[in-house]
Amino acid sequence: MRVGFGYDVHPWAEGRPLILGGVRIPHEKGLAGHSDADALLHAVIDALLGAAALGDIGQHFPDSSPMYANFSSLLFLKEVAALLQRHRYRPVNIDATLVLERPKIAPYVEQMRKNIAEGLQLDVGAVSVKATTSEKKWGLSGERKAWPPSQWRLLSSFHNSTGPIQIGHVLNAIFYSCIQINQILSLIRPFGSKSVLKYRIYIDEVGNPDLESSDNPNHRFLSLSGVVFELSYVKNIVHPQLEALKTKYFNSHPDDPVILHRKELLNARPPFECLKDANIRHQFDKELLNLLEQWTYVVISVCLDKKRHKETYTVWRYDPYHYCLAILLERYVFFLEQSMAKGDVMAESRGGKEDTRLKRAFRRLWESGTDFIAPERFQRVLTSRELKVKQKQNNISGLQIADLIAHPSRNEILYENKFKAHPPARFGEKIIQILTHKYYQRGNKIYGKKML
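and the corresponding structure tokens:
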């Protein structure tokens, strides 16, 4: 668990706009500063960076750099959110208190909360912005002796985990006179309790699992790619945003939802015909990639060279799918243990015998474990002995996202291991760039992609 404290002071300045929390507020003066001088966001950013021990806002966005002149602090906030994500942190909640006598900010607080929540990919209910005046706190009755009218101050608190996510609550942060009193009560969800965080890994398969087809160059490789999301994050952030994107471009409706399929998207097949228009394609790709970049998730991909394994082992211990699944779920178990969380597993339905094969492979791992992980470790962090198998037509956001990243991830692994002569196509390359900081890591070592 990590807690950060942020504090900022700016003098008033003539001829400057007053911007707080990304909202321009009508006032006769603004705040002096190199950027837009948004002291609210600056304090929040310092709290975020402090919690992760990543320095302060001045180190990342120095006021000596011309490029940051009049720069929007909302962009600073998004940059810091991405930095935290690369270091495996995600904020849980923000509590900020403004201390100022004028102007009144009550009409703008909700928009401030929305701006901060959007920048950090949080539910707006996880962001609190409050305001108070100095008079009653200090008993000065408006004398303003202890609070110079030329200054504006803010206190912000941030609460985060040592894993990707750990729930906690910053209950209050109080500023009194010249003494800063930061009262924080943290409620940690103990591992194994009913309130422990729950994740789900959504798995997509690329290739033919049949070992006998390994001599065919087109069927030589089998890969499994898993996308790990915290379930409440999917409900509150990912699913609504993905649905909004589909509605905007493809008129998706709750009664008849559009399901994203990689092949159909690339080829602009129904219901994605609008993507034949180059301008629409460019804008859609930009928004989709932006979501894939902003969302908080972890990727684990495993790729098996069936031909090489067939030649190496005269007796095949597991079928190819079971072998890939074992390696994938070993890493998923590592992730859950590191995050002090629990989770389950969902794969796309292939129908009939294929679904039976998937469930049987999963159950064997639950009951028998692997050479490296005892079954008790699987059972301790996995909430079910049964694999969840769903069709994409059920409009499962996680499965659609897994489908979008599975081919690029597979092609990246094959190219890195010299099984592909050419680098991935342009759009796939952009996804690969995003996945660079999404792959599961332990320390400085990447565990999120593996060639077998």
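(Above: one complete record from the training split.) The two ends are 36 Å apart (CA to CA).
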